[in-house]
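Q: Fold this one first, please.
A: Sequence and structure below.
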Amino acid sequence: MNPQALRKTIPDGSVLDDGAFRAVYEFLSLESDCLGCGDLPAWQALLAPQIRYRVMAPAFMDAARPRHYGRGTPYFDDDADSLAIRVRQLSTPSFTIAENPPTIARHFVTNIRAARTDGGIEALSNVLVLRVRATEPEPAVVSARRVDLLVETPHGLRLASRLAQLDQVSVRQPNLSFFI
């Protein structure tokens, strides 16, 4: 996925019509709602079988190119099998102390841009996650830029790939037991 391509003018022929863009918007809103409500099995149902889910720490390399998108230390680099394990663990209170009691997380997705590619629909967005934990006195905020590949299926759009680049070099959280 190439986030630079979406930053520039979207080439003719790849522009989404209003209905397709609305479907992307509705998909990202539904996904955010599933994550915010803690319905991880419903969120997992929105994933394509070939899912690749990566969340990266930012990489600052040099002054000429101060930030490299998609490089850095991966916090997550998961496929369908590892995500299924993570969902089961986070959905079962007796399997984890990290989410017992559960986190409240609200996902705010904005600045959505999307275009058709050979592989599906590539969507670029920014996300802000507000995380509230019963054990922490102050809410935490995590922000990221995401590049998603959505594929069309008979059941609607599905997430085939996500690359989320965190904005913070150091995430000041006791754990990353939530999805971006």
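Q: Good. Now the second chain.
A: Here it is, same layout.
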Amino acid sequence: MSAAARGNREGRWAWRLTGFVTLCVYIFLFAPIIATVVLSFNASMFGGFPMTGFSLQWYGKLLGNEQVLAAFRTSMWIALVTAVITTAVGVVTAYTLIRFEFRGKQMLNTLVILPALVPETILGVGLLVAIKAVDQPRTSLLLVLGHILLAVPYVVLIAQARMVGIRRVYEEAALSLGASRLASFREITLPLLVPAVVAGALLAFTISFDNTSASLFWRPAGVETMPTQILSMLKISISPEINALGTVMILVTVGIPLIGGLLLQGLTRLRRRGNPEEKT
């Protein structure tokens, strides 16, 4: 066998081994999620295989569980407020960092991205210690501010990546025609930033809604979010309701970004059909 043929054969086996290892990793990661979703429809109160039957009773019990509903409402309004504020702050920050030169720009960029580089548990403990040091009680406002702090870096990074692809000539043309900097941003830059704005808002919502470690340290006494509610339920007993609640969490954290992306693609196609010049 020639050296070239031997090398091709070894290359094929290497790719097959890589594919097998990758498949094993995906199975290891997603098998618990799939099992949780499947067992949420199990008729038996003892979660396990084989299933004794198909039932929606655990979802019905969730709808009657006031603690779960309160935690869901809390997570939803915190995530919505976080998404709105984070998107606005992130877009303006990214625009400032990309379009302007000023003293301390690199330091500001580092400070904005820093929360994404620090593990959430360390950040949560650090801010909790700071709150205790100034004798500040934990409140819902501080919890929202903490979620905003965690989500801002990701929105800034997404908006910066989009801003780099927007050429300055569009804004300069508007400025040369007498438009103000604010009008140029509102009429020229912001419409071109719509994909980044939508992506950043959806990501910020998901990060806030699914946050566990930071919420454990920052939430006020008596306030539960969906992740902390799941943890508190696991401390008492392993109920099939937890599988149903986990499935709801999966649907929200995966479904909302997916639906948002599909809607954004649909709106982009409609806009291109209405403006044939954008295709060229």
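Q: Anything worth noting on the second one?
A: The radius of gyration is 24 Å.
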